[in-house]
């Protein structure tokens, strides 16, 4: 997978204090590490550095947020939070 393909993807944390939560990949540091945020506990301004082996990468992607991140436009935390909340509701149904 290309570095840009990871940005905006929904991931599920499998390990650590934040295990069991959903996040979006904000940035790819290298082939082992990414920065993740959920807009709630982990803000866009202060993303969590996480190893890829501690994450389950899902097929879902927010193309709107991904486009903004790739174009270095501002993404607010509410947008990320709402996307992840809507995703959780859709999964339970």
UniProtKB/TrEMBL annotation:
InterPro entries in UniProt:
Rib_uL2_dom2, Ribosomal_eL14_KOW, Translation_prot_SH3-like_sf
- Which UniProt keyword terms apply here? Ribonucleoprotein, Ribosomal protein
Q: Looking at the keywords, is Ribosomal protein present?
A: yes
Q: Which GO terms describe its cellular component?
A: ribonucleoprotein complex; ribosome
- For whether the record's keyword set contains Ribosomal protein, the answer is yes
Taxonomic lineage of the native organism: Bacteria, Bacillati, Bacillota, Clostridia, Eubacteriales
The protein in question is named Ribosomal protein L14E/L6E/L27E
